[in-house]
Amino acid sequence: MENNLSDNVFTFERLEILKILSTQAAISIENAMLYKNMEERIKERTAQLDKANEKLRELSFHDPLTGLYNRRYTFQFISKKVRAFIQNKRRLLDKNERLKIISISK
User: Fold this and answer.
1) What is the distance between the alpha carbons of residues 2 and 8, in angstroms, rounded to a whole number?
2) Are residues 56 and 15 in the same domain?
3) Is residue 3 part of a domain?
4) In Å, how far from its chain's centre is CA 74?
5) Whether 61 contacts 73, CB under 8 Å
6) Global pTM value
7) Residue 10 to residue 70: CA distance in whole angstroms
8) Residue 2 reports pLDDT greater than 60
9) Looking at the domain assignment, is residue 2 inside a domain?
10) Which long-range contacts (CB under 8 A, 24 or more apart) does 51-55 make?
11) What is the count of structural domains for the chain?
Protein backbone atom coordinates (compact mmCIF):
# COMPACT_ATOMS: atom_id res chain seq x y z
CA MET A 1 0.00 0.00 0.00
CA GLU A 2 3.00 2.28 -0.18
CA ASN A 3 2.86 5.23 -2.50
CA ASN A 4 5.65 5.08 -5.10
CA LEU A 5 6.14 8.84 -4.88
CA SER A 6 6.64 8.94 -1.11
CA ASP A 7 8.56 6.59 1.14
CA ASN A 8 7.48 5.52 4.60
CA VAL A 9 3.98 7.02 4.34
CA PHE A 10 2.56 4.26 6.53
CA THR A 11 4.10 4.62 9.94
CA PHE A 12 3.66 2.00 12.66
CA GLU A 13 0.81 4.03 14.20
CA ARG A 14 -0.96 4.39 10.86
CA LEU A 15 -0.58 0.68 10.16
CA GLU A 16 -2.10 -0.11 13.56
CA ILE A 17 -5.05 2.16 12.78
CA LEU A 18 -5.48 0.47 9.38
CA LYS A 19 -5.42 -2.96 11.07
CA ILE A 20 -8.07 -1.86 13.56
CA LEU A 21 -10.24 -0.36 10.81
CA SER A 22 -9.92 -3.44 8.60
CA THR A 23 -10.77 -5.70 11.54
CA GLN A 24 -13.85 -3.62 12.31
CA ALA A 25 -14.88 -3.70 8.64
CA ALA A 26 -14.48 -7.48 8.56
CA ILE A 27 -16.58 -7.85 11.71
CA SER A 28 -19.27 -5.59 10.26
CA ILE A 29 -19.40 -7.60 7.04
CA GLU A 30 -19.59 -10.86 8.97
CA ASN A 31 -22.38 -9.51 11.17
CA ALA A 32 -24.31 -8.34 8.12
CA MET A 33 -24.04 -11.79 6.57
CA LEU A 34 -25.16 -13.45 9.81
CA TYR A 35 -28.11 -11.07 10.06
CA LYS A 36 -29.14 -11.83 6.48
CA ASN A 37 -28.96 -15.57 7.13
CA MET A 38 -30.92 -15.14 10.33
CA GLU A 39 -33.67 -13.22 8.50
CA GLU A 40 -33.93 -15.98 5.91
CA ARG A 41 -34.12 -18.65 8.63
CA ILE A 42 -36.82 -16.69 10.45
CA LYS A 43 -38.88 -16.42 7.25
CA GLU A 44 -38.50 -20.14 6.58
CA ARG A 45 -39.38 -21.05 10.16
CA THR A 46 -42.38 -18.73 10.15
CA ALA A 47 -43.65 -20.37 6.97
CA GLN A 48 -43.19 -23.81 8.54
CA LEU A 49 -45.05 -22.75 11.67
CA ASP A 50 -47.89 -21.25 9.63
CA LYS A 51 -48.22 -24.49 7.69
CA ALA A 52 -48.17 -26.56 10.90
CA ASN A 53 -50.77 -24.30 12.51
CA GLU A 54 -53.04 -24.62 9.50
CA LYS A 55 -52.68 -28.40 9.62
CA LEU A 56 -53.52 -28.40 13.34
CA ARG A 57 -56.53 -26.19 12.68
CA GLU A 58 -57.78 -28.58 10.01
CA LEU A 59 -57.22 -31.56 12.28
CA SER A 60 -59.15 -29.88 15.08
CA PHE A 61 -62.23 -29.63 12.83
CA HIS A 62 -62.33 -33.27 11.72
CA ASP A 63 -63.06 -36.54 13.47
CA PRO A 64 -59.87 -38.62 13.29
CA LEU A 65 -61.74 -41.86 12.68
CA THR A 66 -64.28 -40.81 10.05
CA GLY A 67 -62.67 -37.65 8.68
CA LEU A 68 -66.04 -35.89 8.95
CA TYR A 69 -66.49 -32.42 10.38
CA ASN A 70 -66.87 -32.40 14.16
CA ARG A 71 -68.83 -30.34 16.67
CA ARG A 72 -66.14 -27.63 16.85
CA TYR A 73 -66.39 -27.02 13.11
CA THR A 74 -70.20 -27.00 13.28
CA PHE A 75 -70.24 -24.41 16.07
CA GLN A 76 -67.75 -22.19 14.27
CA PHE A 77 -69.60 -22.52 10.96
CA ILE A 78 -72.95 -21.65 12.56
CA SER A 79 -71.42 -18.73 14.47
CA LYS A 80 -70.01 -17.25 11.26
CA LYS A 81 -73.35 -17.64 9.48
CA VAL A 82 -75.29 -16.06 12.35
CA ARG A 83 -72.81 -13.14 12.55
CA ALA A 84 -73.09 -12.56 8.81
CA PHE A 85 -76.90 -12.70 9.00
CA ILE A 86 -76.96 -10.16 11.86
CA GLN A 87 -74.58 -7.82 10.04
CA ASN A 88 -76.71 -7.97 6.89
CA LYS A 89 -79.88 -7.29 8.90
CA ARG A 90 -78.23 -4.30 10.57
CA ARG A 91 -77.16 -2.91 7.20
CA LEU A 92 -80.69 -3.34 5.83
CA LEU A 93 -82.21 -1.72 8.91
CA ASP A 94 -79.76 1.18 8.71
CA LYS A 95 -80.55 1.59 5.02
CA ASN A 96 -84.29 1.53 5.70
CA GLU A 97 -83.90 4.10 8.49
CA ARG A 98 -82.01 6.42 6.14
CA LEU A 99 -84.68 5.97 3.47
CA LYS A 100 -87.42 6.80 6.02
CA ILE A 101 -85.55 9.92 7.12
CA ILE A 102 -85.12 11.02 3.52
CA SER A 103 -88.79 10.39 2.66
CA ILE A 104 -89.95 12.24 5.81
CA SER A 105 -87.77 15.26 5.05
CA LYS A 106 -89.21 15.62 1.53
Assistant:
1) 7
2) yes
3) no
4) 30
5) yes
6) 0.46
7) 79
8) no
9) no
10) none
11) 2
